[in-house]
Sequence to fold (484 residues):
Amino acid sequence: MNAALDLVAVAGVILATVLIGVYGLRFSRTTSDFFVASRTVRPVWNASAISGEYLSAGTFLGLSGLVLLDGARGFWFPIGYAAGYLLVLAFVAAPLRRSGAYTIPDFVEARLESRSARRVTSAAVLIIGWLYIVPQLHGAGITLEVVAGLPTWVGAIVVAVLVAALVAAGGMRAITFVQGFHYWLKLTALLVPVVFVAFALGGAPETVDPQLVFPPSAGPGGIDAYATGSLLLALLLGTMGLPHVLVRFYTSPDGVSARTTTVIVIVMVSAFYAVSSAMGILSRIVAPDLAVPGVADTVVLVLPSRVFPGPVGQLLTALIVAGAFAAFLATSAGLVVSLAGVVSQDVFRGSVRSFRLSAVLCALVPLAVALLTVPAGLVASVGLVFVFAASSLSPVILLGVWWTRLTARGAIAGMIAGGLACALSLLVHAAVGGVGVAAPLLEQPAAWTIPFATTVTVVVSLGDRRGAPLRAERFLARLHAPEA
Fold:
């Protein structure tokens, strides 16, 4: 590695991000520009922006590390991440765009005509968003520590400050340009090293041992059916509960554009997951000594110099470092812009000035948490966010879009029940580890917390004497009727 070259790559990404953000700032004038880019983002660029913010530190660094650790078992994460957008496409993309809302709490309030339901939704959105930002800041710290020997807090502060400044200055309109650029940078930053390393190993005397890359324990006979099924359920349904994912569909011109955007996103994220997984497979051949929890997340940064000890390896590492920082910035920016919209409307007056203040506040909270906590496995950290989102928000969003009898009391009860059940199970598992036969249920709770939250929502709604809002059927007709 070359620390000076790696820092130049980081500086280059930061400079490009600032310049593109300034360019986008020229078009950010109205409140609608800041919240939903005036609903004018076309499918290809919107898909690039969604993919840019969705492919986080957990994907760029953590996925390859997970494949290094677990072999074929690690492929369940990219499968779940990509397939989650199929559910978004089928069930919520177009209806959410047709709702006319700015944020998820906006949608819940309009659908249920309840300020209380909005407040609970806003709390869930903030918890999910802040929990998702923390791994991005940890990833930035790990990257600068590995390539330049800097303290981990430096990377976290750099990303948090830059994201807060960009979001506050230009809102959704400016961030859309930035995130679209970041996707293509991230794909290039991994694709080029993968091609170089693959060709280098192809001409080397080493042969790929299938037992090393795909060990028997990772096959059907070695897979824990419950844990795997619960994980996939969390990833599939958790995608539609992520605020920074759903808010982007509000930027589409219409429902058809929202659906088209989702199809393109599936192609884009699948291409990136294939490249990232390939990097993990190559790592099992070249760097099996890094298959240690906590260390495996650095394998993407180390691999090029293992194969190419000279300048070529240094240049490839610098390219990867640039892509990694793009991952931290894009995901953090998407989360902060979605959270700022919620805080601005729920706490302040929903003006441009309050949006900017909210952006700063929404970046400072996860920064404080990141500075006070120790980085864990990046994929595992992000996976916990998916579990919580799937248990708290996803059932209410699905029922809100498709079930006329949903009530505010039912939605509130379901969100609280699902969120608390998920949080308690994960905390108990973290505190005491396995508890006999209950250990798998605590470690991977989605398989029971999601049905539990859905059941509570339905039962409370059916028993609510006030019933659903009088305009519920008219509202759902608006969500599902095609545009003229």
